[in-house]
Amino acid sequence: MSNNRRRRTARLRAEQTAIQRRLERAVVPNVTGPVLGRSNIAYELSARTKATGHGGIGLVAKLIGEVGLAGEIDSSLELLKLHKPYYESDHVLNIAYNALCGGQRLEDIEARRCDRVFLDGLGTESLPDPTTAGDFCRRFDAASIMALQEAVNRARLKVWQRQPDSFFEQPAVIDADASIVPTDAQTKEGMDISYKGTWGYSALVVSLANTREPLYLGLLGANRPSHEGVIDYYDRAISLCRHAGFTEIRLRGDTDFSLTTELDRFDADGVRFVFGYDAKANLVQAAERQGEDLYHELVTRTERQLATTARTRPRNVKDDIVRERNYKTLRQSAEDVVEFSYRPGKCTRDYRVIALRKNISVERGENVLFSEYRYFFYITNDPDMTADEVIDQARQRCNQENLISQLKSGVRALHAPVNTLCANWAYMTMAALAWSLKAWCALLLPVTPRWAERHNEQRRRLLTMDFRTFLAAFIEIPCQIITTSRRVRWRILTYNPWLAAFFRLLDTL
């Protein structure tokens, strides 16, 4: 370890110790009044020291250079006849940086564009303004958007290639789902009305569940089926994961994605799948024909053991009100599982079908009116998983709903700020890059053998961290910018608990 790194490590430990002692000293009886609002605050404008509140962007810029993302984008896109002065990658990264700095719309780019210190830190004279960013989005067509997504995935491969062998020992689990992107506008080309009466677009997200990275993003009018176009994205994602080194691929999706025309092809190609399947009348009859002795109670995953004593379960206030007011409600009393073979109409072979039978009691107040069975079906070609594991795999797909929620409300990528379908599709692709950059920060975070347990836990937390939490930990770090003839120094002016991991990643880059 170099002397500079030793000094930095010592300072970080001193900062951590100092804040811990300060917090411990603060917890004492207080008779003097509230602790907030006591100080006599005065503001002044600094004459010499210049700083930015987005100190983590420098690390992101180094990461982008390390994986060659800008070069991949420029080699794939030819949208500008003249670079004056911006290249295609500059426009793409401008929108990604806006999301990483907490921007929620194109207009927020202006705040960074007018921040002289931020521009000095990136070593540029200016950034594209919001109007120019919107014009750039309108230059895209479907082919160029796919070229951009493939360019990002080529850089993604370079991140995956740095992972340990254990990363590829697990199956690559590819999820797909769609979500409505609503809009109140009346002139956006390509929008339509969904079956729920919501105007907007339907965004299809195909992601890698292992790392929660969005691999491909599609966009159609809100009236289109959620699975439309997914076969091409599935094929591209399978090819990407195999090229990376994954030996086993597993596809997951809800009932809309169990496309029976493709199941035989997936199976012949060695691709496993677990899809929800519509509760058709013939399947319900097949499940009802199964002997009661063939059913068994569903065994769910064991919840993690808590180190502390289990807490007493609090009173269910909602349930008490429902019973007191004699509201009609549905309660699940049991979940049973049975398995049988089934050949879909467009397939040439049988597949495993897992039937989940839920015993639902219809109650009013304290009285049970009647009970009924409801069936849920899952189809798979995986011969190794038990029936319970198949259901568990299908339920884990709910994690993709969390990813889509983050892309909507955290990154604000699933948002339609421009006036055409392709322009909004391009914007979503570029803004979603901010989430991928967050995932790459986690995947490239080095693990020291001596502290393997702690460092692996940091990687896991960073990978699953909400976007707003990531910004607070890794991006919103006050930094002084010092420019010299050969180097731009970002001098961190504060401490937070993630700085040790921040510097460890920086040393790797």
SSE layout and pairing:
Elements: H1 3-26, E1 51-52, H2 57-67, H3 69-76, H4 88-100, H5 109-113, H6 116-122, H7 130-137, H8 142-160, H9 166-169, E2 172-182, E3 192-193, E4 199-208, E5 213-221, H10 230-244, E6 249-253, H11 260-268, E7 272-277, H12 281-289, E8 296-297, H13 317-324, E9 328-342, E10 351-364, E11 367-380, H14 387-396, H15 398-410, H16 421-443, H17 452-464, H18 467-475, E12 479-483, E13 488-492, H19 499-508
Parallel strand pairs: 2-6, 6-7
Antiparallel strand pairs: 1-12, 2-4, 3-4, 4-5, 7-11, 8-9, 9-10, 10-11, 12-13
Q: Helix fraction?
A: 40-55%
Question: Shape, please?
Answer: globular
What structural category do the secondary elements indicate? alpha+beta
In the predicted model, the low-confidence regions spanning at least 5 consecutive residues are none
Main β-sheet description: 10 strands, mixed
Count of separate DSSP helical elements: 19
Oligomeric state of the chains in view: single chain
Rg result: 27 Å
How far apart are the termini?
Answer: 16 Å
Number of strands: 13
Strand content: 15-25%
Mean pLDDT: 90
Structural descriptors:
509 residues; alpha+beta; 10-stranded mixed β-sheet; 20% strand; globular; 3-stranded antiparallel β-sheet
In short:
With 509 residues, the protein is an alpha+beta fold. The protein has helices at 3-26, 57-67, 69-76, 88-100, 109-113, 116-122, 130-137, 142-160, 166-169, 230-244, 260-268, 281-289, 317-324, 387-396, 398-410, 421-443, 452-464, 467-475, 499-508, and strands at 51-52, 172-182, 192-193, 199-208, 213-221, 249-253, 272-277, 296-297, 328-342, 351-364, 367-380, 479-483, 488-492.
